[in-house]
Amino acid sequence: MPFSFFHLLCYITIIFAEVDAVNEGTSKSKSKLRLFVFGDSYVDTGNWRKSIGSSWKEPYGITFPGKPSGRFSDGRVLTDYIASYLGIRTPIAYKWRKEVKRSNLEYGMNFAYGGTGVLDTLANQPNMTTQIDFFQRLVEQKVYGKQDLDNSVALVSVAGNDYATYLARNTHDLQKLVDLTKKIMDQLEINIDRIRGLGVKRIAVTLIEPMGCIPLQAASSFYSNCTQALNLGSKFHNQMLSQSLQNLNAKDNSTVFITLDLYDAFFSALNKFTTHAPAGSLGLKPCCEGKEMGKYYCGSVDESGAKLYTICENPNLSFFWDTLHPSQNGWRTIFSSLRSSLHKLTT
Asked: Which residues are the signal sequence here (predicted)?
């Protein structure tokens, strides 16, 4: 898939201590947990093929690990911070499961693919249902047994690309988004209940980010304002998702499903960033962007390999890495706003 096409389908999609600080307060009892990850580019850590994935091209990974690693960021993403909080290494990407030692599977597995959704999107990659199929196959093959699943948590971060695909196909018609949200919610509820049925004991589902604050949307205001109509769409999605999770918990009076409020975390993080970041911070402006909006993207090169993108001097002063994704600094700041919810994963 061409780099530019991938970014089209994702259309709607300071400095704190380094990752070691994420471990502060983490108990030793968390070290036996397995983390299973489902979703899109916000949590993908390397499932796209290197030959076609933009996340495997420079300058992605420039901050961590110093080269492209399949993450849609200059460094770490949400999965890395949550794994660190749980006291485990980042789980291996599903794509690489046969390339590593069995011991590398003991932290769980990441089934997320950038560009995918609850439903089919423009990305020709496994949607959430197929990702769960992969997980079920491993359970049936006894790669993960009952004891593993008894000490497991799941992270689900998905749906932005469902909206992006709809808008790309309907020329930005917002009139039927309510119907789309209901369709997404029906399938998402089936999917996450299926993860529970496979034995996972805690499932954290992210509320959707404020889609109108993504740099691709904020560009029309020269990165000074969010697009409120899209943020209202995010709020409606999140209200329905929160109700769905409450209903699932109420079915058997459980607390299996918890929400991670990515919407409020984005705004809280942006506020911290704009209030406390040093001079030179970028606000809603991405660190890496194409030299021509809509034609070139972060990582675009011409036939001779010359860069068709610009990159900021210091990614640590950016909240967003490219026109769609937070930087490592952004994810670190977002994570700090999610910490109060994460303790529910281990209680």
From this structure: 1-21
Q: Which residues contact 18 (CB under 8 A, 6 or more apart)?
A: none
pLDDT digits (tens, 9 = 90+) for 146-172: 999 999 999 999 999 999 999 888 866
The active-site residue, picked from 325, 327, 336, 337, is 325
φ, ψ (nearest 5 deg) of residue 295: -110, -45
- Whether the CB-CB separation of 153 and 204 falls below 8 Å is answered with yes
Q: In this structure, what token pair is assigned to residue 229?
A: 């109509």
Q: At what angle do helices 262-276 and 328-342 cross, to 10 degrees?
A: 130
DSSP SS3 for 27:
coil
SS (H, E, C) 99-159: CCCHHHHCCEEECCCCCCCCCCCCCCCCCHHHHHHHHHHHHHCCCCCHHHHHCEEEEEECC
Indicate if 325 belongs to the active site.
Answer: yes
Three-state SS at 327: coil
Radius of gyration of the chain measured on its C-alpha atoms:
19
Residue 193, token pair as written in the block: 């209940």
Element holding 288 (H helix, E strand):
strand 288-290
The pLDDT tens digits of the residues spanning 12-34 come to 333 333 333 344 334 334 447 99
Token pair for 21: 């600080």
